[in-house]
Design brief:
- The chain is 37% helix and 15% strand.
- The chain has 336 residues and is α/β, with parallel strands linked by helices.
- It folds into 2 domains: 118 residues, Rossmann fold, CATH 3.40.50.720; 199 residues, Rossmann fold (3-Layer(aba) Sandwich), CATH 3.40.50.
- A 7-stranded parallel beta sheet has the order 8-7-6-9-10-11-12, sandwiched between helices. Strands 2-1-3-4-5 form a 5-stranded parallel beta sheet.
């Protein structure tokens, strides 16, 4: 099978060095797949499988260019970056990977929380400039704070357990209740969580129904001087509203490992290069992201919460098993 693997990251190289895939003729491409991708006509004509990450934007017009495409395998749980409707109508199978990084994402979330609450990055940047002002780095003890967890699936519950080890008060807003956290977590409404939490962290999957789940109204409900963390999906928040509430001091600090229109927000030069190919929402998000990058109380990382050797191995192994199983007639993790 001829396969194109987009969004190929250095962290994935070790897996392919340790494993052989004789059934696959793989071409590795570091860039995401989108309207600006430049492939050969042979690649468009002969590719059977493409594998992408959520930074790709696999639209109908892109899929139509591939004449022999049978499978799209996303190396992620979310799949809204793929035109699933068109794939379903044209007998192209789409596969995702469920619950591959709950421990790595939960641990990374707590690392971001500690960095925010203890002013780690301002202190680090100051000392590089040979400037120290201890008063600027005064933080809080986590055991005196309340954490609000929006979404209590595999990742949210893992965050709740770690927070409980820090002796934090744990509030949860979730459609389902998990037995493994019910002994210490308090289930509350979304408004109660926002109003009572010192730290709000987001752990729900993205769908069209919860687009901009947190906007101006929700951010304005948060406690004065609270912190916000998002390691879920960028589309879940209105980044303009977050920026406004950081500017007015309502939110003391934010950490974002995910961004709306990530492929553009992390490569703003593409706006100038071909502005007509991007919608207004993506352009606005990318421009706001550039402003956030200049704020000392904001941490932005390039979607790496899942990125541990263990999670990457699980992710890639499951991806290839999905493709193999499809050709054997099985439909594990098939979206459509």
């Amino acid at each position: 099978m001829k396969m194109l693997m987009f969004d190929f990251r250095d962290s994935e190289k070790e897996f392919f060095e340790r494993n052989e895939f004789p059934d696959f003729e793989i071409t590795y491409i570091k860039e995401p797949l989108n309207e600006m991708s430049q492939l050969t006509q042979e690649q468009y004509d002969e590719t059977d499988v493409i594998s992408v990450f959520i930074s790709s934007n696999v639209t109908e017009s892109i899929i139509k260019k591939f004449k022999n495409l049978r499978v799209i395998a996303t190396r992620s749980t979310g799949y809204n970056h793929i035109d699933v409707k068109y794939c379903s109508q044209n007998n192209i199978a789409v596969f995702n990977v469920e619950e591959y990084g709950q421990n790595s994402v939960a641990q990374y979330t707590m690392a971001l929380i500690l960095a925010l609450v203890r002013n780690l990055f301002p202190a680090y940047l100051d000392i590089q400039k040979n400037f120290i002002n201890h008063a600027d780095y005064e933080g809080r003890n986590l055991n005196r704070l309340t954490i609000g967890i929006i979404g209590c699936g595999a990742i949210g519950s893992a965050v709740a357990k770690i927070a409980n080890y820090f002796d934090m008060r744990v509030l949860v807003y979730s459609y389902t209740k998990r037995v493994d956290v019910s002994g210490f977590a308090e289930y509350v409404s979304l408004n109660e969580l926002l109003e009572q939490s010192d730290i709000v962290t987001l752990h729900v999957p993205y769908s069209k129904e919860n687009y901009h789940l947190l906007g101006e109204e929700e951010f304005s409900r948060m406690k004065d001087g609270s912190f916000f963390v998002n390691t879920a999906r960028g589309e879940l928040i209105d980044i303009t509203a977050l920026y406004a509430n950081l500017l007015n001091g309502k939110i003391k600090g934010a950490a974002l490992d995910v961004l709306e229109c990530e492929y553009l927000a992390l490569s703003p030069e593409n706006i100038v290069n071909d502005i007509k190919k991007h919608n207004n929402t993506c352009i606005t998000s990318a421009l706001i992201t550039q402003k956030l990058l200049g704020m000392s109380n904001v941490i932005i990382t390039p979607h790496i919460a899942y990125n541990t050797q263990e999670s990457v191995d699980t992710l890639l192994e499951t991806t290839f098993n999905n493709i193999r199983d499809f050709h054997k007639g099985y439909r594990n993790n098939q979206v459509c």
